[in-house]
Amino acid sequence: MSEYETISVEINHRGVARITLNRPQAHNAINGQMIAELSRAALELGENEQVRIVILAGLGKSFCAGGDLVWMQEQANKDRAGKMRQSKALAEMLVLLDQLPKPLIGRVQGAAFGGGVGMMAVCDIVVASNQARFALSETRLGLIPATIAPFVIRKIGAGFARALFITARGFDAEFARHIALATHICPQQELDQLVEKEVAAALACAPGAMAAAKSLCRQLAGVDPSSFADQTASALADRWESAEAQAGIKAFFDRTRAPWVVD
Fold this sequence. Notes:
By secondary structure, the chain is α/β, with parallel strands linked by helices. The chain has helices at 32-47, 69-76, 80-98, 115-121, 149-156, 158-167, 173-178, 191-203, 207-220, 229-240, 243-254; strands spanning 7-11, 16-21, 53-58, 104-108, 111-113, 125-129, 133-135, 171-172, 184-186. The protein has a single domain (7-190, 204-208), classed as 2-enoyl-CoA Hydratase, Chain A, domain 1, CATH 3.90.226. Keywords: Lyase. InterPro entries: ClpP/crotonase-like_dom_sf, Enoyl-CoA_hydra/iso, Enoyl-CoA_Hydratase/Isomerase.
């Protein structure tokens, strides 16, 4: 197993792997290194015949606060080819997690914003704390939830996606369950217990059959998110180039209101 810095990967004697997002000081925000490491972990765990189940978790107070805005600002300053490399890498990372031939169980606490919601959307089962908070917050920053969009739309449907993408409105765990983003919600102190219940259920099932069932679900869903990778990567690169995104990110760091905000 590779060495990682922005994530950690552990595999126990039962074949249960745990990927933990490991940037707690930044609420596990996604940057270029995390994208590369998550992609590598997904490939390695997918090919490891000893691994039966994968848990995706976040260290500290939050699951994942979405894209790291320092990293986003760096992308805005790159040429078009550089922007496309990073946006395509993000899209491909989500595809690799989505196509992992093992059950992927999300363990969610604290904040799950933007790309954090995207990672929830590629999980087969999501167990969330009833105190967790969610948002597809990109439009407040002049951005769009481009690379995560195919996965989120498949998960919650176009109607809810349009409302949440456009307004960037935050929502709670009950609403996350209502729209099928979260499978189960529970008190924070019961999170690991409920995750273990799902792990135990999966360990009673045949690995090959579970992989085939996942593949069948993807085929029958009617939308193949991987087919949109180039389109969504280009859409994200377009927004990184926009004056709105640059103004929104600047306002965030300056702790001022973005120029489009009206009382």
